């Protein structure tokens, strides 16, 4: 039926909407025809339209602040007189049927003179000022520094309204009277009075609450806090008599003792009453020496066999053999805790049994899975970071290797592992990050990006040996990665081992015979070590086997730097024939031809260099040094002569200081 009438309902709904829109059109529709005419309004007419006034909502935007002033006494007296009742009856009302029964009660006539009240107030103020004034004119007996402190002690130390405090006091009183066995009501009442500054009232209330609710641990603790220190012990003792199993009361009783011997006595009595309290055992053990603590912990693990902290504390105090026994018992008592397995691994690491550490961690993971323990991967990584912070590096690495791939999909492993390694490095867990990179490289041995990230990590956080070993493995697994070969060669070169760098580049040539980067890196290595003959031979081989515009440019520049301008010119001419679209070759050719032409001249841009040369010629050594320092501080990298000499191939190794002197010497002195 509903389906059959749906079409009718929809049609009726559309008709109602159309009728409603016809009867109540939108403002946009009402002014639509007028808006079309706006296109015919000229610019002059637009400018002639007056600005809208700023009178709208002026009262809301600029509210008028209320002012409160004291009311005059005459108005108060007039209002008081208007509110008085009359004691006489009008004769006209009697005659015309008004009030027929006179008002029998006689109201007392109150004649209050408000002027006299004001004078009395002024006199009272004068008396108070006279009392605080001293015999010496201009001095008072009021301490200005302690005045605010005295006021603070007189008023309640609470930011709320006094009326709110009164309401809260009445409400809590009603709760106490309705349910006197409700401890929170007594505690709240006492704290309210404490806030109000009525400490004695608060003490009386809380002690009364202890009588009404003797089985409440919280109310006894609150009473011990509020009463005088010399009464706190007796209050706690009364609470313990009513609640001998209350751990917090025993702890409070021990805290009230000042001597260590007395604290031990309290804790021993407490353990007799509550032998299964881990907190009491821990506090009691902290007061004992090592031997007594070992004995107490032996009893503690028997009374609290499920406390991991007590088992681990006992294992730390025992010898190696006995600690293994303790940890085995702990695993039997608590088979679902991972910290026991970590402690066992750290124990073996401390004894130098490095082979046992990963085995123990792997067995721990298997045991926890058998006992249906949910393994949180992030939490285990944090545990590994804590182990590394405790100098248990092997344990941390074993935890990482056993858990880092747990619960990850194959497509997510690379991204997740790299992110985990960065987080560990950011947290200072360098060994954990190194272990994660090791797992990632073992799983993805041919991923160049992972090898690069690991190499950057070792360069920042590792040693030169670890970096060289990593790069050696990297070029073995990724021989086609040019950047890895270059990093390996540069590492050896920076270490001063040039033959090893040559050997690495030679192996790189075998793996990448046509690589431009490797050829140029080998040339740079030989050039930096002044092996120009080797560099020329390498460039000749590169032009033959891996000919590129860049190789020809480097060859010509080497000849130019060595002063063989004709050979460089010949190379550039041949290179421009082979690579006509290489702009740098043409630029170098033009520069070399300009160098050969030897056309020099003085320009205005070289004025500073000329001035420096003149000062150097006519000043003493200290003045020359001062001027030279000022020139260096100004970074003189501008001017035509500076650019020409600075970019000259023969000056490619000169520093700024050397170039400054060269430019100054090159500027001719005017006649």
UniProtKB/TrEMBL annotation:
Protein name: Pre-mRNA-processing factor 6
Organism superkingdom: Eukaryota
Species whose genome carries this gene: Fasciolopsis buskii
Taxonomic lineage from the root: Eukaryota, Metazoa, Spiralia, Lophotrochozoa, Platyhelminthes
UniProt xrefs under SUPFAM superfamilies: TPR-like
The keyword Repeat appears for this protein: yes
GO biological process: spliceosomal tri-snRNP complex assembly
InterPro entries: HAT, PRP1_N, Syf1-like, TPR-like_helical_dom_sf
Function as written in the Swiss-Prot or TrEMBL entry: Involved in pre-mRNA splicing as component of the U4/U6-U5 tri-snRNP complex, one of the building blocks of the spliceosome. Enhances dihydrotestosterone-induced transactivation activity of AR, as well as dexamethasone-induced transactivation activity of NR3C1, but does not affect estrogen-induced transactivation.
Compartments, record wording: Nucleus
Regions annotated as coiled coil: 10-37
GO cellular component, one term: U4/U6 x U5 tri-snRNP complex
Keywords for this protein: Coiled coil, Nucleus, Repeat
Residues of the PRP1 splicing factor N-terminal domain: 1-58
């Amino acid at each position: 039926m509903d389906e059959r009438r749906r079409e009718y309902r929809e049609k009726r709904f559309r008709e109602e909407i159309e009728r409603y829109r016809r009867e109540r059109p939108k403002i946009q529709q009402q002014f639509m025809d007028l808006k079309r005419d706006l296109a015919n309004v000229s610019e002059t007419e637009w400018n002639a339209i007056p600005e809208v006034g700023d009178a709208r909502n002026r009262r809301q935007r600029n509210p008028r602040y209320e002012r409160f002033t004291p009311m005059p006494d005459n108005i108060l007296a007039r209002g008081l007189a208007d509110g008085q009742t009359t004691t006489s009856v009008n004769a006209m009302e009697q005659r015309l049927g008004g009030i027929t029964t006179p008002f029998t009660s006689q109201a007392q006539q109150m004649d209050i003179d408000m002027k006299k009240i004001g004078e009395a107030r002024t006199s009272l103020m004068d008396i108070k000022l006279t009392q605080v004034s001293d015999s010496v004119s201009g001095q008072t007996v009021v301490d200005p520094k302690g005045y605010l402190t005295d006021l603070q002690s007189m008023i309640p130390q609470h930011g709320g309204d006094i009326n709110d405090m009164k309401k809260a006091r009445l409400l809590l009183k009603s709760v106490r009277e309705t349910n006197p066995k409700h401890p929170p009501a007594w505690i709240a009442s006492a704290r309210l009075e404490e806030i109000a500054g009525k400490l004695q009232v608060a003490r009386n209330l809380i002690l009364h609450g202890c009588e009404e609710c003797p089985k409440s641990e919280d109310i006894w603790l609150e009473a011990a806090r509020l009463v005088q220190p010399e009464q706190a012990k007796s209050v706690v003792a009364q609470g313990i008599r009513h609640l001998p199993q209350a751990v917090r009361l025993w702890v409070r009783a021990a805290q009230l003792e000042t001597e260590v011997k007395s604290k031990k006595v309290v804790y021993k009595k407490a353990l007799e009453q509550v032998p299964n309290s881990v907190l009491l055992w821990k506090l009691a053990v902290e007061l004992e020496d090592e031997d007594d603590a070992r004995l107490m912990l032996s009893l503690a693990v028997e009374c609290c066999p499920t406390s991991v902290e007590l088992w681990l504390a006992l294992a730390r105090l025992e010898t190696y053999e006995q600690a293994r026994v303790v940890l085995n018992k702990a695993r039997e008592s608590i088979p679902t805790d991972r910290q026991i397995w970590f402690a066992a691994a750290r124990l073996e690491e401390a004894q130098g049994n490095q082979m046992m550490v990963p085995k123990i961690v792997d067995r721990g993971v298997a045991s926890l899975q058998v006992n249906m323990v949910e393994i949180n991967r992030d939490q285990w990584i944090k545990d590994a970071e804590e182990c590394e912070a405790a100098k248990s590096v092997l344990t941390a690495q074993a935890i990482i290797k056993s858990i880092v791939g747990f619960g990850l999909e194959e497509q997510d492993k690379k991204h997740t592992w790299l992110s985990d390694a960065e987080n560990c490095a950011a947290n200072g867990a360098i060994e954990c990050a190194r272990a994660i990179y090791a797992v990632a490289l073992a799983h993805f041995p041919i991923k160049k990006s992972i090898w690069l990230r690991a190499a950057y990590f070792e360069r920042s956080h590792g040693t030169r040996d670890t970096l060289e070993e990593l790069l050696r493995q990297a070029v073995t697994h990724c021989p086609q990665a040019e950047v890895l070969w270059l990093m390996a060669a540069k590492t050896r070169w920076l270490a001063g081992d040039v033959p090893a760098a040559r050997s690495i580049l030679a192996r790189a040539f075998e793996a990448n015979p046509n690589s431009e980067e490797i050829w140029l890196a080998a040339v740079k290595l030989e050039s930096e070590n002044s092996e120009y003959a080797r560099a020329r031979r390498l460039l000749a081989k590169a032009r033959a086997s891996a000919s590129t515009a860049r190789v020809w440019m480097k060859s010509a520049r080497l000849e130019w730097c060595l002063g063989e301008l004709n050979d460089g010119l010949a190379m550039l001419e041949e290179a421009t024939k082979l690579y006509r679209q290489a702009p740098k070759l043409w630029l170098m050719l033009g520069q070399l031809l300009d160098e050969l032409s030897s056309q020099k001249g003085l320009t205005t841009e070289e004025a500073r260099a000329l001035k420096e040369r003149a000062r150097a010629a006519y000043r003493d050594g200290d003045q020359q040094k001062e001027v030279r320092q000022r020139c260096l501080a100004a970074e003189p990298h501008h001017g035509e002569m500076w650019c020409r000499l600075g970019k000259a191939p023969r000056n490619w190794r000169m520093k700024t200081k050397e170039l400054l002197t060269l430019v100054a010497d090159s500027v001719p002195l005017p006649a």
